[in-house]
Amino acid sequence: MAKIIAGVGCSHVPAIGAAIDLGKTQDDYWKSLFDKFKRSQEILAELKPDIVIEVYNDHGTAFSLQYIPTFAMGVQDEFQPADEGWGPRRVPVVKGNSEFAWHLVESLILSEFDMTIINEMEVDHGLTVPLSLMFGQVDAWPCPVIPLCVNVVTYPAPTGHRCFALGRAIRKAVEEYPKDMRVVVFGTGGMSHQIHGERCGLINSAWDKQFLDRLTSDPIGLSGVPHKQYVTEAGAEGIELVMWHVMRGALNDDVDELYRVYHVPASNTAVGNIILKNRGVN
Ligand code: DHB
Ligand code: FE
């Protein structure tokens, strides 16, 4: 039977992808950030996932403003890195798992989470930067990845509570899958940032850190935080953090925090990473 062994929360700052692709990780600006992620990569290697379900947001790349699904899942066997204006990132193609993805889609829709089904799409920095941070610069990603897109680009994004409930439905779907498989769920995006307007450059470290603390200790209470608080405290793009609730909802109530990164700044953004292991699951 498939089981969820761990969850990962991870930022997706596009400049991090550019720093990796352009060989700048040892530059003064970047070195201390990339040093912190070495331990994350060791832990992911120890966890040995057979598959990752990556909850992320597209940034007007796969979806134009014509079509904006609230929740969508990629069911292809392969996803090419998208050209976001400066050429595709120099990262491996993302392999999916069509059979497992269709199982998830079926189970989630029957659990009343009406996924949009994506038969064809490319993936942008929202998906590939967390993969780079968790798996490093590799010739091939170590396991298949199922993309689960959440709209956080156009108002209204789904609530934290709804995202947490989606995580619960993902857990049920995974546990129904008959093949043995170690599943890790990524919730990506964030942390505090605002990349436009009068408050451009806003970073709120105190708010970010209590978000990381409560993810372990008070996940249900945290999922009830209203949108307005994200925008007020963590900036307009801080709303990306609602995707972390999908990851947390997919885990058990009791988790062990294996590791955490908090780094300021990268571009205009506070960078976070948390790795939570389901207690008692090996
Ligand atoms: C930045 C952060 C993002 O999450 C994004 O999607 C684009 C830019 C930034 O900090 O520069
Ligand atoms: Fe973003």
Name the descriptors.
282 residues, alpha/beta, Protocatechuate 4,5-dioxygenase, Chain B, two-stranded antiparallel sheet, 10 strands, 22% strand, globular, binds 3,4-dihydroxybenzoic acid, binds fe (iii) ion
Would you kindly provide a written description of the structure presented here, covering whatever features stand out?
- Helix 3 (98-110) packs across helix 5 and helix 5 runs parallel beside helix 9 (242-250).
- The mean pLDDT is 97.
- 45% of the residues are buried.
- This protein has 282 residues and is of the alpha/beta class.
- The strands form 2 sheets. An 8-stranded mixed beta sheet has the order 6-3-7-2-8-1-10-9, sandwiched between helices. Strands 4-5 form a two-stranded antiparallel ribbon.
- It has one domain (2-278): LigB-like (Protocatechuate 4,5-dioxygenase, Chain B).
- It has 9 helices and 10 strands.
- It is globular, with a radius of gyration of 17 Å.
- Strand 9 and strand 10 (269-278) form a beta hairpin.
- Bound molecules: 3,4-dihydroxybenzoic acid and fe (iii) ion (FE).
- The site of 3,4-dihydroxybenzoic acid has 11 residues, from helix 1.
